[in-house]
Design a protein that fits this description.
The protein has 149 residues and is an all-alpha fold. The chain has one domain (2-148). It has helices spanning 2-25, 28-45, 50-59, 64-89, 95-116, 120-148. Helix 1 (2-25) packs antiparallel against helix 4, helix 1 crosses helix 6 and helix 5 (95-116) runs antiparallel to helix 6. It is elongated, with a radius of gyration of 18 Å.
């Protein structure tokens, strides 16, 4: 489970970097048009499509500042995830407490963001981060115990 979780965080980090680059390079108006186009078909099929309505509602709040913040957040979070995943997969002892600390900081921030702006996706990501922290802690305890014996 530990290795799978770390691989998922590493792949997620790569996707976040790609997403961050896209967010920073694509114009806000283009993002809005793409979301409206994508959700239009979903709403034709089902007028009550919750995801389509959430996306369309979220599009109303996209500002240039929010776009820049989101892009930088994705780049930073993605790069840190990849860096720490590599350290964890190579069993570097420094990476275990570093990963736990990093994830706890982001978990705290993500919880803060969820309290301000309800986001199901962010709640899911936060839940996965919490599970990963417990897996890393457990693996670190096993490694430290085996190293002391």
């Amino acid at each position: 489970m530990f290795s799978l979780g770390v691989w998922i965080k590493g792949i997620n980090g790569l996707l976040e970097i790609v997403g961050g680059i896209l967010v920073l390079t694509i114009k806000t108006s283009t993002v809005i048009r793409i979301i409206l186009l994508i959700t239009q078909q979903g709403l034709i099929i089902d007028r009550h499509d919750i995801l389509a309505h959430m996306l369309r509602h979220g599009v109303d709040r996209i500002t240039e500042g929010a776009k820049v913040f989101g892009g930088i957040y994705l780049l930073a979070h993605g790069a840190a995830n990849i860096f720490l995943a590599i350290g964890l997969l190579r069993s570097k002892l420094w990476s275990y407490p570093a990963a736990i600390s990093f994830l706890c900081i982001f978990i705290g921030y993500q919880i803060y963001r969820v309290t301000l702006h309800h986001s199901v996706l962010l709640m899911i990501v936060t839940g996965l981060d919490i599970v990963i922290v417990f897996l890393i802690r457990r693996e670190y305890a096993v490694i430290k115990k085996s190293g002391q014996e």
